[in-house]
Structures are given as structure tokens and as C-alpha cells.
Amino acid sequence: MRALRAALLATLLASCADDAGPDPFAGPVPATCPTTPREQSMVITKLVLLRQPTPGVSDGFDLDGRVSGGDDALSCRRRDLTAPDGRTGIDNQFSLLVPAIDTATAGALDAAIQAAINNGQLMMAVSVEGLDDRQNDPCVSLTFRRVRGMPFVGSDSRIDPGQTFDTQHDEPISRVTGRMRDGVIEAGPFPLGLPIAVLDARFVIPFANARVRIRWRADDTFEGLIGGSVSAARMIEITQGLTIGGDLMSLVRRLVLSVTDMDPDASGVCQSFSAAVAFEGRSAYVNP
Question: Which of 215, 199, 183 lies closest to 115 in space, CA to CA?
Fold first, then answer.
């Protein structure tokens, strides 16, 4: 009798599953999402190059699907990190260099980036399109674009919400589809150029396989994370075009080559390094 009841229960559950239809979150994310009239844009109001608050700990993404130790040749023997929430396999070797960059700017790294955002020199907007649901949506589109305008900044030293900015059409636009679960959007990999401004230096971090995670809060503010791999050769080339001293340029080159952990070539030499940045955002309107 007990076996009969178990069989009937299994049949009932299977029937209910069939009635519910296919799981919209199953399978790969579609390349394009259905168009809907609902969308939400934000402007990035804070951008921070992630450090290691304690040795071996940093937020970021597991970019290669591996938990690498010091003996892993595929990561050029660079040991993976652990996220503050305990996730392992985090790839963010650039976090080792951020303190050195901060020292080179006399401790002004974070303040310099924030000043560039607040004065309108460094503004990026993210638009969430194809929205069906504010909390759970199996397919949403993200558009990253540089914007221009003179932002109003509040007493908290952050750009006020609800302002309108214009798209910079002479700058690249990146698009990717993703999914939203419980108000958190995850998407990638995709190519993304992330602009950075530090004092007199203006450059773009060229992520080849960027991943993004965005938490959309109930008050229409956002917090997020961007991570990916960056070509060491490309980053060194960018550095050579900056108006910085030769000593600092040589230092950056040595440091970049010391943290490569991605994309090993045929001889086992890694060609890229992993990096991650955190950001915050507030609602905005973006003229296309």
C-alpha cells in the first residue's frame, strides 16, 4: 500500500510539472529578448577598483570555472581568491595591483575616480530593457553606454537620481542579454570597455569576456559588480599612451605582467589578467 501511494504521488507531481509548462529559466539565455515597453536606466554614481581587504579575499567572478591553487599551470600558478561571502575560485588578480596604483597617486585613487564622475568627465549609463517583471525575468537586455551632461550632485557627494543625460555616439556601446532572479541581474560574457579617469590619466579597461551582476533595489538604486579578463599587452599599450612618467610606466608594465592568470598560450604563458570593479547607480533618463 505504501509503495502504491508513493507511485500515485510521483504521478501527480509529474502531472503538475507538465501542466506548469517548460521552465522559462532553463537552457541558455536567448541572444535577444522580446521587446517590451518597460525599461529602466541608471547612471553609475560610484566606481571602485576592488582590492583585497584581507590577503586572499576579494569579490569578483569565477571566470574560468576552476578553483586554482599555486600549482595550476592553466592559471600560470596564480592562486584564486575567495569572495567575502565564501565563494571560491574568484579571479581578480588585478586586486593585487590596486594598492600600488593608490600609492602612485598619493592615496587619491578612489577620490580621483569619484571626482571625475561627479564633474561629468566619467559617466556611464546602463539601461535594462525587455522587462516583464521587476523581480524575476528569464530574459532582459543590458545596454552599457557613455553619456554626457553636467550632473547635479547631492549632499552625499553622489549624482542625484532622475536626471537626463545624452548618449555619446562617438563612444562604443555594449549590449548583452541576461536573467534576473530575485531582483539580481546576471549577464555575460561579453566585450566591455570600462572608462577610468585618475587625475590626468584617461583610459579604458578593455574587458574581453566581461561578466556583470546588478542588484536592483526597491528604491530604484543599484549596486553591482563587473569582472573579466584584460589583455596584458593591450593594457601596457594603453599605459604607454598616458601622460605619466617613465618610471611609473615601467612599474605598471612589470606589475601587469606579474599578475597574468588567464588565456595561456601554446607555451603556457598567460596573456591576460583578471580584474573586477564594484559600482553603484541611481535611476536616470538616457536620450538615445
Answer: 199
Here the cell at position 112 is 580621483
Calpha distance 106→225 (Å, rounded): 26
E-strand ranges in the chain read 40-49, 124-129, 137-148, 163-167, 174-181, 184-198, 201-216, 221-231, 262-264, 270-287
203 burial level (CB within 10 Å; 0-12, 13-18, 19+): middle
| pLDDT tens sequence across 108-167 | 889 989 999 999 999 999 999 999 998 999 999 999 999 999 999 999 999 999 999 999
User: Does the CA dihedral 30-129-150-119 come out positive or negative?
Assistant: negative
How far apart are alpha carbons 29 and 211 in whole angstroms?
14
What are the structural domain ranges in the chain? 34-287
Q: Are 249 and 240 in contact (CB under 8 A)?
A: yes
Between helix 232-240 and helix 246-257 the angle, nearest 10°, is: 180
Burial environment of residue 34 by CB neighbours within 10 A (0 to 12, 13 to 18, 19 or more):
exposed
Assign 137 to helix, strand or coil. Answer: strand
Q: Which three cell numbers stand for residue 15?
A: 502531472
C-alpha cell at 49: 577598483
| Beta strand 270-287 pairing with 40-49 | antiparallel
Q: What is the pLDDT of residues 82-116, one digit of tens each?
A: 999 999 999 999 999 888 878 877 778 899 899 99
Q: Which residues neighbour 68 within 8 Å (Cβ) at sequence distance 6 or greater?
A: 74, 75, 78, 79, 80, 89, 261
C-alpha cell at 133: 517583471
Q: What's the whole-model pTM score?
A: 0.88
**Cα–chain center distance at 211:** 5
